[in-house]
Amino acid sequence: MKIIDLRSDTVTKPTSKMREAMFKAIVGDDVYEDDPTVKELEKYAAKLVGKEAALFVPSGTFGNQLSLFTHCKRGDEVILGDDCHIVAHEVGAASVIAGVQLRTVDTDGGIMDPLRIERKIRKEDDIHFPHTGLICMENAHSVGKVVPIDNMKEIYEIAKKYEIPVHLDGARVFNAAASLGVEVIDITKYCDSVMFCLSKGLCAPVGSILAGSKDFILKARKNRKLMGGGLRQVGFLASAGLVALKEMVKRIDEDHENAKYLGKKLKEITGIEVNLEEIHINMVFCNMEKIHHDVDEFVQYMRDKNILINPPEDGMYRFVTNYWVNREELDHVIESIKTFFPQ
């Protein structure tokens, strides 16, 4: 039996169409801006999210940090959620690369209160205060929740009131759009720049996109070079990204349905707690603390069953569905868990 990997959607491998596209890709030196496949990807990606221009970057973290670096001056302050990816999972890069201070706002499952954000904005030209240089949102949030569009709209309007740019960490923005039943442009119109991943649920092997105005991307291109992201014949990777955006976006809701199926089946097991209403995208969070068990033993048992999972974080296991995990394999996961935790 093949390995069933539920640790994350970052484990996805390129599809056969991606591999073929990479093999046949026409490439050039992208630093000279003469890689036609990269240009095609950037033009397509910009139009998809309703921005003037776009830039291929190596990863989501790279794209987020490049955005902070481009929007802000050193010493600026960035307002964002206390549990967002930029704060929690990007190694403190904002202080190293952009040289900015992060001013966090408590969230409710990734959703920020617009009034709290407004209170955090530095409104006075006071010698003691840093300048508010940027507001960041995240959708879908890395906790698996989708932020309502009305919430994003309200935050964006506050930002415009104070002439502050807004960046969207849209690593899984296509998951958010599928969950909300809207076009991705309906989400990205409430930000000035957006980063989204071509990997994860879209299965490209490498790469993300940073999109925004022409002037912003022009500055970001030079900053990308400074950060070491001036790639050469990157069309080999961009070709897979084109397949991701043209084909894989259309089927991403299948992962959501599989996540809901997995969550429902887990909830039927005595002692496992799952909030089905909180399964917005392809992530299932569950609590197994009521079933006293050795975590290392359980993780190894699942591995012996050809199932890869991560140990719990803050008491919660996270299982992530993706293109390479089908319904039959999820049934194997359920039966394996039932065997480990006899009822």
Break the fold down into its secondary structure elements and pairings.
Layout: E1 4-5, H1 16-24, H2 36-48, E2 53-57, H3 60-71, E3 77-81, H4 85-88, H5 93-98, E4 101-105, E5 107-108, E6 111-112, H6 114-120, E7 132-138, H7 149-161, E8 166-169, H8 173-180, H9 185-188, E9 193-197, E10 208-212, H10 214-226, H11 235-246, H12 253-267, E11 273-274, E12 283-287, H13 295-304, E13 307-308, E14 316-320, H14 327-340
Parallel strand pairs: 1-13, 3-4, 3-7, 7-8, 8-9
Antiparallel strand pairs: 2-10, 5-6, 9-10, 11-12, 12-14
CATH architectural group of the largest domain:
3-Layer(aba) Sandwich
Number of strands: 14
Kindly estimate the percentage of residues that lie in beta strands according to DSSP.
Answer: 15-25%
Low-confidence spans: none
Q: Strand sequence of the main sheet, in spatial order?
A: 2-10-9-8-7-3-4
- The domain count comes to 2
End-to-end C-alpha gap: 26 Å
Helix content: 40-55%
The name of the CATH superfamily of the largest domain reads Type I PLP-dependent aspartate aminotransferase-like (Major domain)
Q: Which overall shape is indicated by the principal axes computed on the Cα atoms? A: globular
CATH class of the largest domain: Alpha Beta
Number of helices: 14
Mean pLDDT: 97
Instruction: Tell me the radius of gyration.
Output: 21 Å
Which H/E pattern describes the elements? EHHEHEHHEEEHEHEHHEEHHHEEHEEH
Query: What oligomeric arrangement do these chains adopt?
Result: single chain
CATH topology of the largest domain: Aspartate Aminotransferase, domain 2
Summing up helix and strand content along with how strands pair, one would put the structural category as alpha/beta
Major sheet attributes: 7 strands, mixed
